[in-house]
Amino acid sequence: MTGERHQAGRLHNLSQAGFPLLVRYDLEAARQSWNREWIPNGPASMWRYAPVLPVSKPSSIVSLGEGMTPLIRTRRLGGKYGASNLYVKDDGVNPTGTFKARGLSCAISMAKELGVNKVAIPSAGNAASALAAYAAAAGMEAHIFMPRDVPQSNYIECKAFGAQVTLVDGLISDCARIVAARAPQEGWFDISTLKEPYRIEGKKTMGYEIAEQFRWDLPEAILYPTGGGVGIIGMWKAFQELETLGWVVATRPKMIAVQVTGCMPIVRAYEKGAERSEFFENAATVASGLRVPKPLGDFLILQAVRQSGGTAIAVSDEEALDAGVELGTIEGIFAAPEGAACVAAVPKLLASGALKADDRIVIYNTGVGLKYLEAYSTRFPREAGGESDKSAGLVTPR
What we know:
Blueprint: H1 27-33, E1 71-73, H2 75-81, E2 85-90, H3 100-113, E3 118-122, H4 126-138, E4 141-147, H5 152-160, E5 164-168, H6 172-186, E6 189-190, H7 199-203, H8 205-213, E7 221-225, H9 230-245, E8 254-260, H10 265-272, H11 298-307, E9 311-315, H12 317-331, H13 337-352, E10 360-365, H14 373-376, E11 387-389, E12 394-396
Parallel strand pairs: 2-10, 3-4, 3-6, 4-5, 7-8, 7-10, 8-9
Antiparallel strand pairs: 1-2, 11-12
Helix pairs in contact: 3-4, 4-5, 8-9, 9-11, 12-13
């Protein structure tokens, strides 16, 4: 951290030194005027935590009902893995089907409050869908740059929400360079991951919700699928704020960054003991949200992992997809491959001793599997043939 301070209530991107900006609040004042017992009376969305969110005018809030997603105890899956307290925090039920709704609701709300009418974003897919939806709800112009091979669902969503979409031959890093170059001349406000300070504020509500749903007694471990890693950074920030508010004890969860072998810059940096990651060449994975070859906030991710006593681990695409099918078959939860990667990591972490059998373990599923039908179709090829039963309108297998 450079110690730079910037005035609230103004548009900001990166600091003068090129680092992400983090929002700070007068938590002592909040502690005197706000009580956790009042929260259940608030909105059934992430805006129940409004006193620690940056929007100052309620009329500026652009909400589609994001947040307060289910925390599901997965007893059968936990029994199979030998984990007696295994949970899935399912953010796949958010608007546009992923956790990205949280960050974009907050960022677009602040952009509205500060007079922005044109926004732009580079995205591996799901952030683009969320930005398009919230920009539409706010009446803003949205400009989106995505790799050409993003899931079809993301492209169609963005177009349906009226966004201007450009498909790029390359990775999200290539898309980011285009946005950075064109934003000043086009008058776009850049809402790239960690290049403005408010998406992280929406993402931190994941930590507040987990604390509330566990009755303010934090779990022992959280597994998080780590592409840009803002969720880990945000939750770590939330736990620090909750301690200052006096709402939780000082023992925080182990933060476990889960990546895939086709793109694992954080895992490599963690294993080397490095403070920053190196660009991961030829990144490739079916989990598009994890295809981030060098996260801007890599140093913040690694700090949270190490300070919490956590770890970083990678699984293969095949292991992630198989684990996603297993989660669906056993528990009825259809997770995105990113969340499924965390499922695949659990038995590995139990076997290594990084997790204990009686730990309260939270798997963070960041999206719904329906957005990744192309990826999961490799597990369920359609059978050829079949005769039509015209009388019943059914197909009779051969």
